[in-house]
## 1
Amino acid sequence: MPTQVYAQLSIDESNARMGFSGEHAGMKFEGIFKKWSATLTLPPAENASIEASFSVNSAHTGDSTYDETLPEEDWFFVEKFPNANFTSTSIELKNNGYLVTGTLTLRNIENEVNFVLEKLNKGYKADFTIDRLAFDIGKESDPEAEWVSREIVISLTID
């Protein structure tokens, strides 16, 4: 019987991309985290897991207004919460990838997220949406999400 091979990957900003996107005043914006790392041990490994950490202070959009605002107390509050983390709680093998469930911690607030880590011809890709208000991001200045979209898409691309 052949041995099943599983993927064990160590990734960071040098060999993958972690981005985010949303809308501000009806205009789309996107950015990346310049400093982050993750370790993925994928099924059929018995100890399948994904652990990721990213420096929220490294968020970069290329727009000086956004880049100066994101670290502030109302948004990422990097002085008090410099890192965000993701820890998987389950990973299931699916047809074209993996169904991942885990806990995302931002601003010391934990929320469950689910996403599909899609296997590509070369690498992997995942997108999932978070409710920024559930993490108290921009809650003081835009509590009704009138200016900045409530839903922010987090994306991961591994080459």
## 2
Amino acid sequence: MEVFFIALVAVTLAEIGDKTQFVALTLSARYQRPWPVLAGIFLASLANHGLAAVGGVWVSRLLPAEVISWLVGLGFLAMALWALRNSAEEEAPPVSLKGAFVTTFVLFFLMEMGDKTQIATAALAAHYSTFFWVVAGSVSGMMVVNAPTVWFGHCYGCRISPRLLHRLSALIFAAIGLWVLVSALL
């Protein structure tokens, strides 16, 4: 049980202010469907951190960190362009529960690849040689940080015009994408 708390605290601290927390806020405000967004975050974290715990160092050898950084950075720039394209629309199209869940799941799963929370999970699993308690703690840490963020986006996102929300989303995605690409270059 001690391993659970170590993983919980480590991942919670690593996730505060992380790019995925900003994406949780944006997706929640955009979709106005907190439960599918939370489910997407939970299952993506479970899958990603489960892979990290099982794979440990092997996962990091599969793709170089630089390649992962480039893919994530370019993905964010693509999301920024997509958000800008949607800002030109007067009214946002209706969003299905499936769309909110799938988008959240895919984004979170990909964004966590090579992220500090995934690396922390892999290191803890390798150090403690336990799968269940490390994954349970790391996924709980992700939810401790992102659940309030999703609810905040849900409560206050509807007070922002869809056009402004899309532009702010595009700005956040572009900034994160450029930051990841610059970090990859350095």
## 3
Amino acid sequence: MSTTDTGQVTFRTEDHIAVITVDNESKKNAFTPDMMRQLAGHLTTFDDDDSLWGAVLCAAGEHTTAGLDMPKFFGPGADADLDPALVDPFGLGRRTTKPVVSVVQGLTFTVGVEMMLAADIAVAADTAVFQQLEVARGIAPLGGAHFRYLTRTGWGNAMYHLLRADRFDAQRALALGFVQEVVPFGEHIDRGIELAREICANAPLGTRATKIAALAYLRDGEQAAIDAVDEVKATVFGSADAMEGIASFVERRPAVFQGR
């Protein structure tokens, strides 16, 4: 548990994995502007460090987040500016090009859902409940829910939840494609790290190139994804890791990748 009144976001590494943890338990992990800047800084550190191949974004305690600490973001004298050079936790500006696993539990409201959907894979504890509350508060989503609900689950399901501002559970999130696994509370963070380890057992140049090419499709459509194939070839197929992958197959042994 955080010992500060304002919360914090911590960063640690396990082998090639960055584990980024939101910690403001006394306020159900509500985000302050400083916490959002810390998160952006940690995601940038991860993205810029070639020795880190995957990340897990998780939260301390029983809840992912109750949302933003609204007075600190929108009250008098609030300073919520984020340096555009940093990775945007919502993936609306700079986006990390490496794999990110999001882990959620308990209350996962508003920005918690949006940051989860900005990741690549999500694991939910069976305690997780989700709600996009903005329209019930007289506002509208600003962190990507308005289009990421669509890309994950289609128009009808997206509008069903966005326009009603209803609460739904982990099994519904699984059916929608918002999360990929539901596990018992207490096992959720370990499972997220386990998935990151599975990803990091693969060639990091290959996983990164795969994500970048997929993002090209989301950003610019099918032709951009087709055009990205040449870049994938140039980046990956001449690498030492590609040669190691072939050698390990021929020699019938696990591959040992170096990220080069």
